[in-house]
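Example 3.
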Amino acid sequence: MKTLNIGLVGYGFMGRAHSNAFRKAPKFFDLEYQPVLRAVCGRDAAKVKAFAARWGYETCETDWRKLVERDDIDLVDIACPNDMHRDIAIAAARAGKMITCEKPLAMNGPEGLKMVQAVEKAGVPNMVWYNYRRVPAVTLAKQLIDEGRLGKIFHYRAKFLQDWTISKDLPQGGAGLWRLDVKVAGSGVTGDLLAHCIDTALWLNGRIDRVSAMTETFIKQRKHNLTGKVEKVGIDDACAFLARFENGSLATFESTRYARGHKALYTFEINGEHASIFWDLHDLHRLQYFDHRDEGRVRGWRSIHVTDGDHPYMGKWWVPGLQIGYEHSFVHQFADFLQGIAAGKPASPTFRDALQTQYVCDAVLKSAKSSRWQKVAA
Amino acid sequence: MKTLNIGLVGYGFMGRAHSNAFRKAPKFFDLEYQPVLRAVCGRDAAKVKAFAARWGYETCETDWRKLVERDDIDLVDIACPNDMHRDIAIAAARAGKMITCEKPLAMNGPEGLKMVQAVEKAGVPNMVWYNYRRVPAVTLAKQLIDEGRLGKIFHYRAKFLQDWTISKDLPQGGAGLWRLDVKVAGSGVTGDLLAHCIDTALWLNGRIDRVSAMTETFIKQRKHNLTGKVEKVGIDDACAFLARFENGSLATFESTRYARGHKALYTFEINGEHASIFWDLHDLHRLQYFDHRDEGRVRGWRSIHVTDGDHPYMGKWWVPGLQIGYEHSFVHQFADFLQGIAAGKPASPTFRDALQTQYVCDAVLKSAKSSRWQKVAA
Amino acid sequence: MKTLNIGLVGYGFMGRAHSNAFRKAPKFFDLEYQPVLRAVCGRDAAKVKAFAARWGYETCETDWRKLVERDDIDLVDIACPNDMHRDIAIAAARAGKMITCEKPLAMNGPEGLKMVQAVEKAGVPNMVWYNYRRVPAVTLAKQLIDEGRLGKIFHYRAKFLQDWTISKDLPQGGAGLWRLDVKVAGSGVTGDLLAHCIDTALWLNGRIDRVSAMTETFIKQRKHNLTGKVEKVGIDDACAFLARFENGSLATFESTRYARGHKALYTFEINGEHASIFWDLHDLHRLQYFDHRDEGRVRGWRSIHVTDGDHPYMGKWWVPGLQIGYEHSFVHQFADFLQGIAAGKPASPTFRDALQTQYVCDAVLKSAKSSRWQKVAA
Amino acid sequence: MKTLNIGLVGYGFMGRAHSNAFRKAPKFFDLEYQPVLRAVCGRDAAKVKAFAARWGYETCETDWRKLVERDDIDLVDIACPNDMHRDIAIAAARAGKMITCEKPLAMNGPEGLKMVQAVEKAGVPNMVWYNYRRVPAVTLAKQLIDEGRLGKIFHYRAKFLQDWTISKDLPQGGAGLWRLDVKVAGSGVTGDLLAHCIDTALWLNGRIDRVSAMTETFIKQRKHNLTGKVEKVGIDDACAFLARFENGSLATFESTRYARGHKALYTFEINGEHASIFWDLHDLHRLQYFDHRDEGRVRGWRSIHVTDGDHPYMGKWWVPGLQIGYEHSFVHQFADFLQGIAAGKPASPTFRDALQTQYVCDAVLKSAKSSRWQKVAA
């Protein structure tokens, strides 16, 4: 078995999710590569050390430039805030490393384009962690669509609702709260949450042609944790947009952090000529499926408990009826990545795939600012 | 169009439900008989008069014996407490009237048998208001079973849960509370609620052979509204039983008025070799259906919104997607009764059908008392 | 008791729904007025006669102008297609009749304004049948909002999804299909379905300031039943729009007749600072309610089975746990109308209330055409 | 940090579930002990070796007696079929090892009693893997009950429904099918599935006093994989029983492998004076809670998404809204075990706790055989 030496940058929420995936994938999937947790990098030496001890990383770094240049690293995994993705990715590509990068790919489209150019020039395997594609129910949705079961698509609707920033006393910036700091995050719910919705949509339903959007920042000023001062909030707290897909279908997208009662309610629904699909992150192990070709009297939405051996990825886990959770989507994606490099085939979404999501986000933000429909770049 | 002159006995909850059915049936169904609300009878003259005025009954009576003997009455509808069913029904049969009787048929099996003998001897159309058979989703379940879709039946489970008698301060007896008075009701949840579950079960799954039951009276004494004294409570507050059907399937039945959170949660589920069915009174317009013959990957419980034109009775109401409610089950049952007399065919359940439910109730109560399995009379 | 003589125009789906309400309201509500079904009017004499016989209308008319001028009519109820609302309403107002009009009020805002001016000038009681306000769960939502339980509102989202016009073989025009004929309907889903969503939204959340919309007509040509020729389809099959309310909240609205699996799925959700509400026409007897002030560990969406005596209107029906259906919303609205005229207070929505919905529809259609945000007239 | 050397017996479904728990617990929980996967034991040398390689066990054994006697083993984990639990546990206890044993504890009560005596005599920490206690929603239920929120308990109902043995072509015995072989399994659904229901019930609701049960074996003969012959099936395919708890509450329990549409539907509901609880393994991350003390109009079943930081165990995983799955219950249980030995406190359920479940199972099987109520041993 070949080894794959991993250098992780970032030890926060995503650093844990990725590390868990690195460790679990070979226990449940048959892989040609054995991941080795060679190094983890972060700015706070003590915290990096503690993280390395817990997760079994062999060494620590506090400067990502050093990590990127180490000869004993095959894969650089970028799990730090958005504003650092570009520089790390470009440097890693130049150093000939494989790269897996947390989403969103970049702060915006132009940044993303440079990253795409870098990895494509270097010819290194690359992937962005839009993990929801690998929730078995979502992968099943993809299968059903690709098999033509839905027929012509008329409608797509997605939303991602949270409620964790409603309090005006919540500060912005710093550890755990960089998602509220526009300089670090690039945008608010658009890049953080809608990017997920858009990635899935592009995968399932093809290109988006144009959008009309609105955004809102309900709390205009918050204390900034790094400066200690009350500062203007630059991110979008909420964003909704209309979209037209290239295949002629109509879509609505919405995301907010001001929807009481919803912690991470990512849902999507697709209505086709023959069948419809609905999925919900709060019950991620189920897929709702309606098939109009069923006999009339017994036609109904089917609640598919996606835990059977013939469901995507599920044959690798437990027995029918026993659900898996959020973290497993990362395990699946990493297993697919390893199988991809073994087979010489890219695992989706690549940087280029993810760039398209970035372009949609850019068009959304531009539309919200201009109050006009915007064409999406391609 | 022929007229059918109705004489109603009782003006309580069921008097209203029946009267509403009498009035609505000809508006929505094509019937050969036009019901005429000729008379209503009750002990309190003022209340009877007010009821007659509201519902359009032409005349009033305060003695049911007079009502039963009136020449201008074709159908005697019995909607008064259980302890009066027998005498009224037997007198009405002797007078040659058609009879519709609120459930349960009688206080017990022997009483019920006499009623059956009376109506059969008189040769008069007769029916018991086990209305849940005519909820469209339940009728659809019957159709699916009769079509053989479930295959061999392995399991039946039913429950009817309420929570309205938990307070120890609730008195027993008198208007609105006669269901707690064993002398009037005959039994507690067994005759009031389980009788519904048993009726549906016999209809859908055939005869019950034997039962093992337990009952409980949580509040042993309550003030009696008629005597003003604290008296022993004679009814069962809760009852659960195991059963074996003649077709080899196993069953559990349970009912209680001590299930917090459930107002009238009547549910049943049937598991067959090929398919299963679930229904719930709290969402009575839906039928849950699972068919194992569906393709594996997209197999799931189907939530059938039973509001389409090809669903039982629904073509007579509104448009697909618009639900009907509780009261419509009575309308359907009365329409079926009228169509039955037009066609010379009995509408189910007849007194004889309902007698079988009475025998199961008797066996249940006997089993609970003896702590032994009991064979059901036939 | 006073009588109220009703003259109904139209004997289709809505003619039945209204007639049922006229008959049932006095059976279940305590009213000072007794409705009398004096006359029904329609173009086809034989059909009108049959309808009158079934529902008990005393007389028939085939020319609405005659009906409007009859001295023995107090209330003109308009239940015919949209293109006739204006003329009938204005004539009825001039004749001093009370008027209840099926929704949408008119073909467009300017038409609606003339109707408002007519009824206000005549000083006659008037109401539009936006019946969903009177579904008990929706009325309960209104109560909770008015009591301030939600706090500041951040988001409103509504949709109304159907799937009955997907087939390209479905013709347009004529009985049962006039909703596809733009000359009769005025618009497609915007006036038919979104009008309901907008009416509820204005009631619950106040004025809408501006909108950005898109519409689509998936099937461009259909056979016209009246001409027998294939003609261009002028209605919108689908419409989605973004909206800003005057209270600062953001909204998404969507409607379509191309959503497989949904027969009449009208849903709305409101997210406030403290609490959220969700409702769904397919389970209209439930209200989902989330209150953030609940203790953290046991916080969750509450599924309120709106069938208790302390829920709006429900004390008049059966007992807790027993659901009512679609038709009851009309009964409630008519009971409120009668109580309103007894008390000298208008029952909502009046023509003027409904005009505001018309203005939103106009802005939506204009925005879809212009691809620009549009201000809503007031 | 101290190390804890683990010797695992069995490498099937449960061997994987336990190994995953050993590996994950220290990554997510702060523990004083570091588990070391020292040895795994199984009869098939090649398979054991492959298992060891995948999961990182340092050594292999093919004779459990050798494993039990090794000095470098601190904890013997029993994850092999039921018929071997007793001998391994008693030998391990004699060797002074800590023991964790897969459920059910033993083939029957008398066997279990010997195991309890052995571990108590040896004074070694011991625990049985009734993992569902550690599903966060179930642990939350325990907290709510212990806090007295439900008040006096009236009803308990549990069921565990599967559908995987309906085919008569399914053989019995051997790898993967020993659960159908009565000599290895001891019983059918009673020991396999109802044992889980009973364990939870005893934990949440106290002792069961007496039971009345029925069992059924739908397929009387199946080919035996080890003998190659068609042999009588000795296990119970289905079992249902009534029970009386010592606290006065009434219960129904049911389990079957013949319930079409249910893969692993373990549900329980508890009705108390003030509140009720419902849980469902198919959506294990939710707890349904109804509190009658909520204000009447907004009272409803709360669907608690048990993923918040203040929910049991959940602060250790991801962020609110992101669900965990089946496997995590084992991780929690093992973390609790390690914390227990660090603190010198047993982690539940101990062998003695689990013995009580065994006694209930014995009474159930005896009642089914005798058709009489049976007292549960204590």
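Residues 88 and 113 of chain A are 14 Å apart (CA to CA). The two ends of chain A are 40 Å apart (CA to CA).
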